[in-house]
């Protein structure tokens, strides 16, 4: 499987990233191990998680996803085969707030390393912006962790265009570590938020993009065609917002293209993302080995220019 360079790092990542938000939620540890084994066996190597996954599940406290991944890597003795990304800055404490202070980051990374059963993270990401903490303070914390060998590279997620640009400019001005990746919500339905300003910033600064909700919470798999389908999974309620004329127009175009390529709708939706000049490795989650086939097929799918135009037109946001 062809690998892609993430930003200006030495990380060569698979063209699809596994989204670890399902671990400890829709997948228990045994099933998580099975899916992760299949993911690596298929030639993929990039896994993304966060310290806060999956605190939203009743009875969970956060850290469940990292713990499962750590247990899996230890049991398989495969840490050196994995490019591991996690995040900091979301509110692990239900009564707390999103935080990127130096003190918070230095404490949070130790907890993540403990759960992940490793002594370093390949990509450590600011999960959400913290407007109360100066940009340079956050970057100084990352600089300390890089020097200590606890993290290798840094990325950002969910920043505004203005704040992300300020972070990149601060890194250059003060010779501090630079965000090498950006993680936005981005898919065929949700295009404007990234494409309007952020995409060009990423291209101009050679920042790799590892977008989340690549399949719009499952809507772009074609699994949900009416409100009656929303009960098909625990995540079904998140799909209702896409069920409008534009959403169904996108599905119709995906149906047309998937038939032409003898592929699944999900694989085509991911292949469209991988064809974007800005995107390095879209994030997608699966809950079974059968669904994993969609990721494998997507990684091998090369859409021609005419087909990309069909999908572009159906999903146009202007």
UniProtKB/TrEMBL annotation:
Cell division recorded as keyword: no
- UniProt GO MF annotations: oxidoreductase activity
- Spell out the Gene3D superfamilies in the cross-references: NADP-dependent oxidoreductase domain
Short name of one Pfam family: Aldo_ket_red
Keyword list, A-Z: Oxidoreductase
Q: Which GO terms describe its cellular component?
A: cytosol
User: Which superkingdom is the protein from?
Assistant: Bacteria
List residues of the NADP-dependent oxidoreductase domain: 16-315
Can you say what this protein is called?
Answer: Alcohol dehydrogenase
């Amino acid at each position: 499987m062809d690998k892609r360079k993430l930003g200006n790092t030495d990380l060569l990542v698979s063209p699809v990233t596994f989204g670890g938000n399902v671990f400890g939620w829709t997948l228990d540890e045994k099933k998580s191990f099975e899916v992760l084994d299949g993911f690596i066996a298929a030639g993929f190597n990039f896994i993304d998680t966060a310290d806060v996954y999956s605190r939203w599940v009743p009875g969970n406290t956060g850290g469940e996803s990292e713990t499962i991944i750590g247990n899996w890597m230890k049991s398989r003795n495969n840490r050196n085969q994995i490019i591991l990304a996690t995040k900091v800055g979301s509110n692990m404490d239900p009564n707390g707030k999103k935080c990127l202070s130096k003190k918070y980051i230095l404490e949070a990374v130790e907890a993540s390393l403990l759960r992940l059963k490793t002594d370093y993270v390949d990509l450590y990401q600011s999960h959400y912006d913290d407007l109360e903490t100066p940009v340079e303070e956050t970057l100084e914390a990352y600089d300390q962790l890089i020097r200590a060998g606890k993290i290798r590279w840094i990325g950002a997620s969910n920043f505004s265009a203005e704040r992300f640009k300020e972070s990149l400019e601060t890194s250059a001005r003060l010779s501090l570590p630079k965000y090498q990746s950006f993680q936005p919500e981005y898919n065929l339905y949700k295009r404007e938020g990234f494409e309007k300003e952020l995409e060009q910033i990423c291209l101009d600064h050679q920042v790799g993009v590892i977008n989340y909700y690549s399949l719009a919470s499952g809507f772009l798999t074609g699994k949900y065609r009416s409100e009656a389908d929303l009960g098909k999974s625990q995540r079904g309620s998140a799909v209702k917002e896409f069920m409008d004329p534009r959403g169904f127009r996108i599905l119709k175009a995906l149906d047309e293209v998937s038939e032409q390529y003898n592929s699944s709708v999900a694989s085509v939706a991911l292949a469209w993302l991988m064809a974007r000049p800005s995107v390095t490795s879209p994030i997608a989650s699966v809950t079974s080995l059968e669904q994993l086939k969609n990721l494998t097929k997507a990684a091998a799918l090369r859409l021609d220019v005419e087909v990309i135009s069909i999908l572009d037109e159906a999903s146009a946001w202007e």
